[in-house]
Amino acid sequence: MNISLNMNYMKIQKLTIALCILIFAASCGGLGSENETGTQKTTKKNKAEKEKPEADPKGIGEVENVNLTDPLNENMIESGKAIYEMKCASCHKLGQDRVVGPGFADITNRRRPEWIMNMITNTDVMLEEDPVARKMLEECLTRMPNQGLTIGDARDVLEYMRKNDMKQVGKKDQAVKDEQSS
Amino acid sequence: MTVLAVGITALLFSACKQNGSVKDATSAVKGDAAEEVYVAPGEYDEFYAFLSGGYSGNITAYGLPSGRLLKEIPVFSKYPENGYGYSEETKPFFNTSYGEVPWDDAHHIELSQTDGKFDGRWLFVNANNTPRIAKIDLQTFKTTEIIEIPDVAGLHCAPFITENSEYLVSGTRFSVPMPQKDVPIDSYKENFQGRVNYVSVDQETGEMSLSFQIQMPGFNYDLARNGKGVSHGWTFLTTYNSEEAHTMLEKNASQRDKDLMAVINWKKAEEHLEQGKGKEQKTSYYHNVMDESTGIVESEVKKSTTLLNPGDCEGMVYFVPVPKSPHGCDVSPSGEYLIGNGKLSADMTVFSFSKLKQAIENEQFAGDHNGIPIIDYEASLHGVLKEAGLGPLHTEFDGKGNAYTTFFISSEVVKWDLEETTVVDRKETYYSPGHLTIPGGETKEPYGKYLLAMNKITKDRYLPTGPELAHSAQLYNIEGEKMELILDFPTKGEPHYAQAIPADMIQPGVKKYHKLEENEHPYVAKGEGKAKVVRDGNEVHVYMTAIRSHFAPDNIEGIKMGDEVYFHVTNLEQSWDVPHGFTVQGAHEGGLLVMPGETLTLKWEPVKPGVFPFYCTDFCSALHQEMSGYVRVSPKGSDVELQWSLDEES
Fold it and tell me: If we measure between CA atoms, which residue out of B465, B441, B444, B467 comes closest to residue B453?
């Protein structure tokens, strides 16, 4: 009953509710569900999937598919920049230098947009279960905190990262392009 | 695991017996008691129990049935552990008409109610010494408001709640000249008065406001309960010292065979108020409220109060006699029975509300006191529980027709049948219980299951800790016909009363962090880019951020001797259970414990030039030890410019 109710709310893409489902599903175990929610799909990864040897380049979490659009959306960039400055800039600089966490430069060329958004919104699970995120935790030693961003917030930050990549390294979205060409 | 725990308990008992120090209590405990209170690692307790701290001034939250201490909630006492009362934001909580008062004696817990049942919104508690009532928010487990009650003394009789949280009712324990004036103490009968106070509660915000006060004879108003169900709209207050003695009360206030219980029709009082019978009186009291969006407490001084005089307000106040110095009257779940706990009597008096009301309607009065009618005792009596024990103090209910009363002098809890007024069962407590609580035990629908007795004497219950001992509490299972003692645990301060509520009424709503976006603190730094240092005369404001594992800025120079430095620390974390601590060497205001998304301020006045470290006091991460910085203090008149940086970037 709760689940179906929550699924209706999913359509408004509230992360809090989405996370509740995830936690609820995780605590109950094996409640896999697939729901179309615009550009994203919700799937609870079960243990078998989690333990598969190869890393999913999209990471683990709510975000299954992101449609990147061009030209860049200036409204999203503005919102993404404000969120970045409030919640991310303490640890991530815009250039290449690692401070607490890695610098953001080049990130959209190295990581899929889904991976980036899952890392932001599903941080604890990613740090436990995603091999790439785990390896970075071993290098950085400080656990990346979940900063309470909604999926929409994370998408705005991603747009800001894409703009930043153009400024820093002159290209963006290469991780998606590489996969499409392979 | 359970088997192991039971085994260990059994082992402890047998060890105890071998060294010859066995108490009756050990044989009073059944072998499987441990199973009943065992909450396995990672599992939750079934109930939250909130215990007042008495002279600690605070409240503690325990889990039941495990007896595990979950949190101490600071209320009337400053609390260096988390900076409560030391941070600039929370200092105004201690403002009173007597100046700054950093401590009090917190007695009675009241959970908010809707339709006579707990609703899990707020918790209220009284300050006995400098009369005040505080509100605690049950999403954050933080004190959010403190209101002073003017023109009373010793607010022991508080803050008793009505069935829809309309009012928090209180009475003065000590009668005094009202308003205060310089008179001989032996002019008591001429100059001393009592007051019963009605504080209304805003149903949206919980904000308290002193609605009206009732002028009463100069007795000692001791404890109260409000009616519910059939008796909703009425307040019952026990009093002692109807003799109006002012010295050696131990003897002189115990002369009469019966004292008087006040019976107040507050719906009638509201009518008189509407008819303009209230008189505005000049007074002065503080109302301190925390703004949730900033966390800043603002104090407001109120200048008047509305007083109702029973002489002008017919049908508002009555008295009814109760045997010998009663300590509390408790109202049964239906609202029909009122239990007068005559602490110097072996008997318990049970009044019937319907008889009481009938006696009022029939004007069955046995005289009056200063014009206030005294209702005929026999006409309002339901029955007397004879010689149930010595020194009855407090009664709660299980919702199955039984009442449970603590007997202070004979150290026991007695279960008795309300309708029949006969004893059903009795169990010893260790020792001399004051209050007891049953989950929901004062409401229309008690949850029953457990009874917690809070004892005044501990003596030999635990490993000794010098002359001062923690007070003991005992938990009983009351599901069966016979009560079973299942747990014994130490408590903090002196719990005078407690209330327990099912965990699922609070747990889902508990706040995990404050949203940064909603932080409206005037000195917030929403992001490291907003960190800065601003001088305003000799005040220096540091807009500082904290996130695992650094502060920004972490190098500050240009502070001069004579400056007042305010560190406004914003915790940028947005996840649960990641507070950051902050303090700086020599800080006279202790330290801060800043919750995620919150801003708190520590004032620091340097006492000598030099370079002083500040650091995070809450182990926050693997690099917690690195979470630190320096502030440089130069002599007055030095030309060192104000500058700040992190990682050598300004």
Answer: B441
